[in-house]
Amino acid sequence: MPRIMTYNVHSCRGVDGKLDVGRVAAVIAQSRPDIVALQELDVHRPRTGRVDQAHAIAERLGMHFHFNAALAVEEERYGDAILTALPVRVIKRGALPNLPRVQVRGRGLEDRGALWVEIEVEGRAVQVINTHLGLVPPEQKVQSEALIGPEWLAAAPRPLILLGDFNATPRYAAYKRFAALLGDARKLAPGRPGAPTFPSRMPMLRIDHVFVSAGVGVDGVHAPDTALGRIASDHLPLVVDFTLA
Q1: Cβ-count burial of 109 within 10 angstroms (0-12 exposed, 13-18 middle, 19+ buried)?
Q2: Residue 216 half-sphere exposure toward CB, CA atoms < 13 A
Q3: Domain residue spans in the chain?
Q4: Which CATH architecture has domain 3-244?
Q5: Hey, CA dihedral for 45, 49, 53, 58, is it positive or negative?
Q6: Dihedrals φ, ψ of 77, to 5°?
Q7: Separation between Cα atoms, residue 54 and residue 41, nearest integer Å
């Protein structure tokens, strides 16, 4: 049974303040996913030792990776990646719209993006889109509208899996927009598990999500709440076991 994971790795800096790429890779390896969507990766940034975190994690897991930079300044990159050992090709990388005049805690909003790949799963092509939405509802609105539109979801064949850190609980409008088009894996799973992922030390919020199209069945959902996972990042991973109809 294929397994997919979404995980905001917080630039591999744990809640204990320790920077440790190997620890993040170990958290992922504990769940043995076939496909991994990661958010908040640093590549060649001085603040994290100029390590290419996407490459370092993929190498430890024996996977290929594709990276999308939401932020790029000279050689520094910051963004999201999809890792897998399955056959994969990139369909689209791109930025999501932002609201540059809006500020949170006195700072401008971060640039956001999305990465769309096609992965061969059990002989079938599955579209996988990884994203990381903004913090405030006005930017989530324009970003969710862009993702639903003709350049992303509306153009993607099915079966499809959309996942990532949406910074939105089920009460948020952005979540409701996606849930109107796709199924929330938590609600489709047997027992409808809550599986909160944030904050990692005492998870209470469901802001990381996996949405699936028709043709993707959900057999299980869990947020691995391990001792290592509670300190490696400020999020827990969200893991979904799925089948293809």
Answers
A1: middle
A2: 29
A3: 3-244
A4: 4-Layer Sandwich (3.60)
A5: positive
A6: -135, 150
A7: 7
Residue found under tokens 């790429």: 21
Helix spans in the chain (H): 21-31, 53-61, 137-148, 173-179, 185-188, 229-232
Beta strands in 31-159 (DSSP E): 35-43, 64-73, 76-84, 88-96, 103-104, 107-108, 112-121, 124-132
- Residue 229 identity (one-letter amino acid): G
**Which position has the token pair 């996977």?**
63
Q: Which helix (H) or strand (E) holds 239?
A: strand 238-244
pLDDT of the residue at 106: 53
Counting every residue, how long is the chain?
245
Residue 26: name the closest of 233, 195, 220 by CA: 233
Q: Using one digit for the tens of pLDDT, what is the confidence trace for 43-71?
A: 999 999 999 999 999 999 999 999 999 98
Structure tokens, 218: 């959900």
